[in-house]
Amino acid sequence: MKKTLALLLLALSAPFAPAADAYRIAVIPKGTTHEFWKSIHAGAVKAQQELEKEGVPVTIIWKGPLKEDDREQQIQVVENFVGQRVSGIVLAPLDKKGLVAPVESAVRGKIPVVVIDSGLETKLTSSFIATDNREGGRIAGRELGKMLGGKGKVIMLRPATPPRR
Predict the structure, then answer these.
(1) 25 within 8 A of 71, measured Cβ to Cβ
(2) C-beta of residue 96 within 8 angstroms of C-beta of residue 118
């Protein structure tokens, strides 16, 4: 995922002249406290370092809601970055509909947006990158079957998550 973020950031920065000394790319996760989002942050920082080694000056601005159910805060974060005229946005939307208007506003303002992790009901984004969970489940099931030698019982527990709006 870290190399993917480097490519994402390069793709965002390539067609646009930076407004200042460096491209300013906002990375907006669904939340900032979960370990998964911390790993995305580490990937964004690594991507920044890789791009700078290649002579592409990039500043990563990491900001998102504290909790993964605060849609209103995430909308405000996106709107604030649009107002700041960042060079690009990488967004993991909390809501497939609630973030459409701010994202389309960004795109109309010539700010490219790459959506990661969860889809958004708009065709105006520059790119969408996510895991194929169905295929991941198939791979895990086959591997577990091999580990158990084709015998035994398996239970799958799904963590409780707040409902998506």
Answers:
(1) no
(2) yes
Measured at the CA of 80, the angle between CA 35 and CA 36, to 5 degrees, comes to: 10
Measure the CA–CA gap between 75 and 95, rounded to whole angstroms.
Answer: 10
**Distance (Å, whole) CA 15 – CA 21:** 16
Domains of the chain by residue range: 2-131
CB contact set of 79 (below 8 Å; sequence gap of 6+)? 102, 105
CATH H-level superfamily of 2-131: Response regulator (3.40.50.2300)
Nearest CA among 1, 23, 31, 155 for reference residue 95: 31
pLDDT tens, 37-60?
999 999 999 999 999 999 999 999
The DSSP call for residue 128 is E
Q: How confident is the model at residue 161 (pLDDT cuts 50, 70, 90)?
A: low
